[in-house]
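Q: What does the assembly look like in three dimensions?
Context provided by user:
Components: two
Sequences:
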Amino acid sequence: MRKAFFFLLTGYLLMVFETAWGNELQVGFIRLDGLLALIVWYALRHTVAEGFIPVCLLGLIAASLSALPPWIFVMDYAVVFLMVRYIQSHVLELMMWQRMLVVMFTSLQAVTILMIVAGDIGLVWPWGIGQSILNGITSPIWFFLFDRMDGFFFESIHSDAGAKD
Amino acid sequence: MASLATIIFFYVGLRLGSISLFSPIESTLLDSSGYLQKAFSKPMNAVKGFWASYVVLRDVKQENAALRERIANLQRQLNEYREALIANARYRQLLKIKGRNRFQSVIANVVGVDLAPWSATLVIDQGRSSGIRPGMPAMAGPGVIGKVIESGLGFSRIMLVSDYNNAVAAMVQRNRVRGILKGAGHGGCTLAYVEKGVDVEVGDRIITSGTDGVFPKGFLLGQVSSVSQGPAADLFQDITVKPVMDLNRVEEVMILLTRSDLLETRK
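A: Here is the predicted structure of the complete assembly.
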């Protein structure tokens, strides 16, 4: 419960930061974004039973910071979470470069879903691709930050949640 | 867990059906996020202010001279417009035409942008307590930049004219040719549904036509930046319009309180 709250609070603060500094963090339609990395990081450490509801709640919070319909974010984040859980259940331990690829792949999926449903499919190339590449490249930094914050607040060593699925 | 999931999907289902049962929750979230966005954007505004005030002073002398020249030209134009306004009022009186309403307005600061980078919406630090309601026009610089789509108690969200989902009834000021100004992303717009062969030139000023019931007639939307006839099979011209200002750099907006029944809430 506390970890779910930590996840939601971190996600919310990231969203507020991104929307408050949006123009400064953005080139074209590509923006420095830690939200997808957060969802992947959370999905790698929590089972579906533990993590699905917080991820859906994060989708609802995200909707309050956007003009896009709320169900897009709920569906989008839920799909990303389930996809990462599926990958995690087939792999013993993901290397860093594999995590980067997972973030890149799931970001592309998430951004494509958002753009299709919002009616902006023409933006997938080059902006959606560019955004997912940026998310993948910056994910080790975000993972490091989230690990540090998690360790600072909870002081626990994470067990591999993949075995629980 | 199942009951919580049911609540989430119930909520989402209600939103899909456009039932505004949860609008108080949404406006509360808009307000609470707005306060945080305002706090987060303050340091950046301070940095930008410092940069603008102290660092970028190299071209001030040339800029000053150019501005003086421009002021002189504008004063000359202003005098001509005053004359035209007086003449116009006289003609209106003669023809018994009702004058355009003068709207009250509210000035607001931009505190945030949309979570989706391609969605051109802004969060401003004025809301229902200042009389702002969805549908009201947002102005910046010399013309219209968007409209209010959501309003909380102290914060509102405006959709810019460059958003892909935005459309404004517009016309060319010079010859009154009508079209629809649609958002094209990247801070730009297109003037759609103008038939081929109709006279539209680069530099033409595009104004609101007032037929959409949202924007009052005659407000500046932008200038035509390019015109092409497009493929032979198309019925309409490809016209791109540059908005009245750089929409990625909007810092303050003016909301016109166009609904007279709501003006009293400001008092």
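Follow-up: Residues 124-154 of chain A form the longest helix (31 residues).
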